[in-house]
Write a structure and sequence with these properties.
This protein is an alpha+beta fold. It folds into three domains: 204 residues, Rossmann fold (3-Layer(aba) Sandwich); 83 residues, Elongation Factor Tu (Ef-tu), domain 3, CATH 2.40.30; 104 residues, Elongation Factor Tu (Ef-tu), domain 3 (Beta Barrel). The chain contains seven helices and 20 strands. A six-stranded mixed sheet has the order 2-3-1-4-5-6, sandwiched between helices. A six-stranded antiparallel barrel has the order 7-8-12-10-9-13. β16 and β17 form a beta hairpin.
């Protein structure tokens, strides 16, 4: 079955955690002991209904404050598809958590409180979703029960969001009116909104994700060279890694970068099976027809379709460290399977994620800030733009002293 990863976003008290709890509860994906614990906690808190937000808000601070702080991952499945949910915080001071949870998502669920309509935080979450190139955006207009299940309210919010989304270039967005508290249009259709056909689960189960990966530009970063220590396989040399773009087939001509050598794919293997083709995000082993000096960090591509190669790279960065980004600061950089060091040359501007304005007067990049920067690496990187390929266009900044991840970058 296909796996769909999706993340949630929304303002405080828009009902993100409640919606996820409702999805899990109505799809019968909560264990009995978990459900009993949530029921007891709900009674202790004096809630009239089962507080389904407690299914995901697991930290004590989250339960005490009634807000989401950390990223909570949950798994559930239906007969049609498997799902991994990343419940991310809505507060601006947890932007880095939202970026972390959304970085691998196929879809983003953006919640809007029907009473408040489109807010600054809606703009912020949509901007971050588009910055991360999440292919599908689902706008859940929640708490419809508190506006009398009004179609007029739903239409007004929809029109306002569409006008903004088109400016950002959002290509695939869908709307669902729901009440997460009462379960309207979440898993089961709502009798209170017979003017709308379908449910959130219907959308999640039928969302087309076949082309979410780049199937055009063939990219295979080598992760490990396999040389078995055995006389039986003394001449075996396999190159293991994950296909990050395109399709690879035995017999095809390929090029090895950065060396530029040409060869042919002898075989594509998955465990002990010979494959006719490999495509994203499969992890496979390739054998090549010629003995070429290839090591971790090299990339197998098609000769007529090469990535960009450069040491000077401009990107958008989300900073995750309490220590600000240092101009002329040196950081370790991870890009696919290649490890290099880099120097931050320039901060062009920061982005006000509430208004999407560019700030050039303040170039100090602090935790949770998003900025456009240029770096220079010690070795050339083999990359595509993040818009073209979310894997080969992404980098991770690491503090060399503490080995902590301090930022993530999306290459322009």
């Amino acid at each position: 079955m296909e796996l769909l990863r999706f993340t949630t976003a929304g303002s405080v008290d828009d009902g993100k955690s409640t919606l996820i709890g409702r999805l899990l509860y109505d799809s019968k994906s909560i264990f009995e002991d978990q459900l009993e614990a949530v029921k007891r906690a709900s009674i202790q808190r004096g809630n009239e209904h089962i507080n389904l937000a407690l299914v995901t808000d697991g930290l004590r601070a989250e339960r005490e404050q009634g807000i989401t702080i950390d990223v909570a991952y949950r798994y559930f499945a239906t007969p049609k598809r498997k799902f991994i949910i990343a419940d991310t915080p809505g507060h601006i001071q947890y932007t880095r958590n939202m970026v972390t949870g959304a970085s691998t998502a196929n879809a983003a669920l953006i919640l809007i409180d029907a009473r408040n309509g489109v807010t600054e935080q809606t703009y912020r979450h949509t901007y971050i979703a588009t910055l991360l190139q999440i292919p599908h955006i689902i706008i859940c207009i929640n708490k419809m029960d508190l506006v009398g299940y009004s179609k007029e309210v739903y239409d007004e919010i929809q029109d306002k969001f569409v006008a903004f989304a088109l400016k950002l270039g959002v290509k695939d967005f869908r709307f669902v009116p729901i009440s997460a508290l009462h379960g309207d249009n979440v898993v089961e259709p709502s009798d209170n909104m017979n003017w709308f056909q379908g449910t959130l689960l219907d959308v999640l189960e039928t969302l087309p994700i076949d082309h979410d990966y780049n199937l055009t530009d063939a990219r295979f970063p080598v992760q490990y060279v396999i040389r078995p220590i055995s006389d039986e396989y003394h001449d075996y040399r396999g190159y293991a890694g994950r296909v990050d773009g395109g399709v690879f087939k035995p017999g095809e001509q390929v090029m090895i970068l950065p060396g530029g050598f040409h060869t042919t794919i002898k075989s594509v293997e998955l465990q002990d099976k010979q494959l006719e083709q490999a495509f994203p995000p499969m992890s496979v082993t390739m054998q090549l027809a010629d003995d070429i000096d290839i090591s971790r960090g090299d990339m197998i591509v098609k000769a007529d379709n090469r990535p960009q190669v450069s040491q000077d790279i401009t990107m958008m960065v989300c900073w995750m460290s309490p220590r600000p980004l240092q101009i002329d600061g040196k950081y370790a950089l991870k890009h696919t399977t290649r490890d290099v060091r880099c120097l931050v040359k320039e901060v062009h501007y920061k982005v006000n994620v509430n208004t999407i304005e560019q700030i050039t007067s303040d170039t100090e990049v602090k935790m949770n800030d998003i900025a456009r920067i240029t770096i220079r690496t010690t070795k050339p990187l083999l990359f595509d733009s993040y818009r073209q390929n979310r894997i080969t266009g992404a980098v991770i900044f690491i503090d060399e002293g503490t080995n902590e991840t301090v930022g993530v970058g999306m290459i322009e």
